[in-house]
Structures are given as C-alpha cells and as structure tokens.
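Known limitations

Structure tokens in this collection are predictions and should be treated as such. Users comparing against experimental data should check residue numbering before alignment. To illustrate the layout, the record for Serine decarboxylase is reproduced below. The input appears on top and the generated tokens appear beneath it.
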Amino acid sequence: MVGSVGNGSMDLREREKAVPLPKEFEREEMVDALTPLRPDTVEEEEKGRTREIVLGRNVHTMCLEVKEPEDDDEVTGDREAYMASVLARYRRSLIDRTKHHLGYPYNLDFDYGALSHLQHFSINNLGDPFIESNYGVHSRQFEVGVLDWFARLWELEKNEYWGYITNCGTEGNLHGILVGREVFPNGVLYASKESHYSVFKAARMYRMECVKVATLVSGEIDCADFKAKLFQNKEKPAIINVNIGTTVKGAVDDLDLVIQTLEENGFKDRFYIHCDGALFGLMMPFVKRAPKVTFKKPIGSVSVSGHKFVGCPMPCGVQITRLEHINALSSNVEYLASRDATIMGSRNGHAPIFLWYTLNRKGYRGFQKEVQKCLRNAHYLKDRLKEAGISVMLNELSSTVVFERPKDEDFVRQWQLACEGNIAHAVVMPNVTIEKLDHFLGELLEKRSHWYQEGKLSPPCIAAEVGKINCLCSLHKK
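Generated tokens:
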C-alpha cells in the first residue's frame, strides 16, 4: 500500500475509483488557489491599498479556519462530523497528489500499519541517545539500534562513533558543520555552489567564513577551483561539505579527490569533512563501482535523510560522527539527567521506531534491490526523453533525471517537478513505476507538441546546464 500508516480493509485502488474528489480538492481548484506569483514580485490590490508579495505563494487562499466549538457540539456531534469530512477530503487529495509526484526525493511506497497503535504515546528522545534521561517514554533502544546499523554501513566501530536521529536532513548538516567548527574554531567552510541551501544557512547561523566553489557541468565540485580557493586561505583550517548527491543534478562529489587536494596542498591534519548524503548516502553503498563513503577515510561526519530513500512518513534523518569530536560540543543538563550534544532538544521518538521497522524488514538485500530498480527506471526515463528529442542528463551514480523545464507551470505543479532556471528534474524513487513514468511521458509529449507547435518552434538550449553532449536543441542536436 502506498503511504499507509493505518489499517483498512478496502484496497487503495478501489477507494481512488469509488470516491471522486470534491470540487474544493480538485486539482484545478488547488492549482488556482496555489498559483505561483510571477514575476518575482507581484502587487495585489487589497482593501484599497497595494500589497507586495515577494516570491512564494499566498497560502491563506487554502486556509482551513480553526473555529470555537458550539455549546451543543457534544450533543449534536456536528463538529466531529465536520472535522471527519475535512480530513476525508484531505486524504483523497493526498492520494491524488501522491499519484502525480515526481520532482522531490521522497519514497512514498510504505506501509506502517503495524505501528499505528504506538501513535497513542508521546514518545520523546530528548537528550543524548546513549544516556537515558528521567523521561521514561522514549525509544532510545530503537534509536541506538538504527545508529549501529548506519555505523556498520559506514565502517565505524561502536566504541568510535556518536550520532543521533535528527528531525530532518538539514539538521544533520547543521550538526555536522557545527562539529567541524568546534574542531577548528577558525576554520573556513568550503562548499560547492550546488550544495544544499542548508549548508549556507549553517554558515550564516554560525557566523562562519564561507567560500563557494565552482562545479563541473555534472554538478560535482570542481577540485581545480577548490585548490585555488584553498590557497587564498592557506593559513586557516578547512571545513568541507562534500555532496553525496547534489540537490538538483544528483551529482556526487569525488571524495577521494577532495581529500587528495587537501593533503597535497598543505592541509594534512588541518581539515574536517562533512558528507551530506541526504538521498544518495543510503543508495551509494549498493551501487556497483561506486566510490565508498567510509570512516576509514579521513572524514568527520555523514548525514542522511530518513524520509527520502528509506521512506519514513515523517521528516527525519541520521547523523553519525566520530566520538572523539563530540565532547567539545556536549554539556551536561541536570534537568534532563542527560547530556546535550544535539541541535534540537525534544526529538521525535516515533521516527527511530519507523526507521528500525523498515531496516529490519528490508535489510541490506532489500535496499540493494530497490536501488537497482531506481537506477534502472531512471535510465528508462532518460532514454525515453532522449528518443523524444528532449535534452536530458543523468549522472552515472544518480536516479535524478535532469531535463529541459516544461513551459507550462500548471504542468510543473501537476507533476510536482523541482525546477531551477531552464531545467527541471524527476527523482526516480522506489514508488516510481514504469507505468507512472509512461503516464508522465505521455502527458509531457502531448503538451510539448502544443508548446512548440509540432516542431515549428525550437526548444531552449540548456547546454550550459547539462553540457553540449546532452543538449538536443537545434544548435547541438546531431
């Protein structure tokens, strides 16, 4: 069952067919309500004055108002009936949006019905995962089991690692970079320009000097430019964010070349590497010929997201670092009867249970099969797009398919594509089937024939974004 956290006797497909979406939850209604503001600023007339909205959307057109219960609600049951109807409509809208989901790296194929009975408990893993606090409703035993699994995956012994389950991938990056700064307080943060925005957020939060490094057309870090940037700050230690899959192009930075560049240019024992493996950090170990991300190399920390490839229904992540680094960051908290070394205080205690459940059900072999399926289907999508004359790029170790941005923003929103400039991408996850890809391709080709008037107009050149070899515009098409 796709995206299930509860039990039900009726098959999901039957429910989809049996109950049409009410008007307020129809895609057209939702699209109208969530139409993006273009260009970057839009002026609207509101009550006789001009209001400027910068980027984003006016979400309040879809606001579900919170109302005070009436005095007789407990007798009539009207309030409960109203809320039940709203939630039912919302659930049906989620089913529809799940069917048209391609642009973001979330695995929507999961069934956690067996864990639904645990939702009656407020499970909180506040404090250090390895030191039990006075709060007894926790899931540390599950959390440490999950952390041990990831430590084995990245080849770090139990007595040599420290980590915790975060609330999202961004928190993992915030923590990893913070550890790096504590190890080297005057260090300079280096990150490729295609790194996740949370890396640059960390630099702002911690008031760190941050240097953006150029990238190759694939999206991976340009180590020639990295070398040049290092020489500009050769007196200061280096803190480096290495991408194990960039956000837009799914590019994997060459970890070995980054280490070599550091050591050959006077930074031996003067650097800290954090590996941002939000999506591909869990896929890479199961890709043949892929370079290894391992603590046997001189890296300081690795983070992954739990709600992406693993398929956890709530945002979460895993952060692993070397135990020797964490003492500089931690402090004792008497109120908790524990130690504070995490970014957040209270932490979702349900997430470790969901992760533990999935890791036990799938194991290494199960993840390997899913990785192979994703890569196979990503190549299928790339080949079909190329056959249709659409500019497309797929990095060797990636399931992120990059192609020319569709001209119709309604189509972009319908398929929830992630876009940047002239390109868009689809992230092929375990829930993305060949049937879904064929459906997407059929709609895209039909729309595209209208956009370009069946060949009378030319599609844009995206050679600068994907390289000449991948661009099929009139100038570069062979």
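For this record: Residues 154 and 293 are 6 Å apart (CA to CA). The longest strand covers residues 41-46. Please report discrepancies through the issue tracker.
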